[in-house]
């Protein structure tokens, strides 16, 4: 995606998700679909999708959520998956979806010209935390909703509530420099960790009846691949991958060893079960 087609403040995110980082996520599509399937089940339950509804899937990535939503609304409904990542949407479009009514748009939801008052639901699994000015982004998306429309998404809670991320990252930091400190409102996985901030953003965008439910989880970082699989997953995508980028081989090897040691206590058979925590956020369009 050409950054010039998105909101200027989102240029860095657009560049990242269309570069090697976005390609790594696309390459990990099958594994991520399995890993995050429990989160998708929670989102579908809270979204309360009905046959015939029209849905926007925000930050749809490689399409697992779009396909799942389309299966729930049926052929008489429709799902628009929107994402800035060309590599991930290319993977999404490779999915065979007979009988489902869905489409994908390579676009920035902050400025995308949605048909006004034409959708019933805005939904997202971890796709809403990367906007530079999320109130502006959500205001644009809300215009696409009918007056009876609603919002349902999941986002990560605070880092301290998510050993799923922090356990391997803190282990890697024993051998490589820490990533640059992010502000609490900078785009990133924990940008919506603050309940107060999420309520402020959605209120400014015109949503009402905002509800936020904390949900603890246990996610299999190994995806059935044992300790080796969990270590490899940490090295390929996410914050550990960013911390190790451009580091010399000996430091990467040392960091991998530290990650293995840190994850060993969480091994259960072929799984590595790490605690995680999300917000389940719902709201009304008006």
Give a quick precis of the structure:
It is built from 12 helices and 8 strands. The chain is of the alpha/beta class.
Describe this structure in words.
This protein has helices spanning 11-17, 20-27, 29-35, 37-47, 64-73, 86-93, 134-142, 163-172, 195-204, 226-236, 239-244, 249-263; strands at 54-58, 78-83, 102-106, 119-125, 145-156, 208-220, 267-268, 271-284. It has 286 residues and is of the alpha/beta class. Strands 1, 2, 3, 4, 5, 6, 7 and 8 form an eight-stranded mixed beta sheet that branches. A hairpin with a 2-residue loop joins β7 and β8 (271-284). α10 (226-236) crosses α12. The radius of gyration is 19 Å and the shape is globular. The mean pLDDT is 95.
List keywords for this structure.
alpha/beta; globular; 12 helices; 286 residues; 8-stranded mixed β-sheet
SSE map:
Blueprint: H1 11-17, H2 20-27, H3 29-35, H4 37-47, E1 54-58, H5 64-73, E2 78-83, H6 86-93, E3 102-106, E4 119-125, H7 134-142, E5 145-156, H8 163-172, H9 195-204, E6 208-220, H10 226-236, H11 239-244, H12 249-263, E7 267-268, E8 271-284
Parallel strand pairs: 1-2, 1-4, 2-3, 4-5
Antiparallel strand pairs: 5-8, 6-8, 7-8
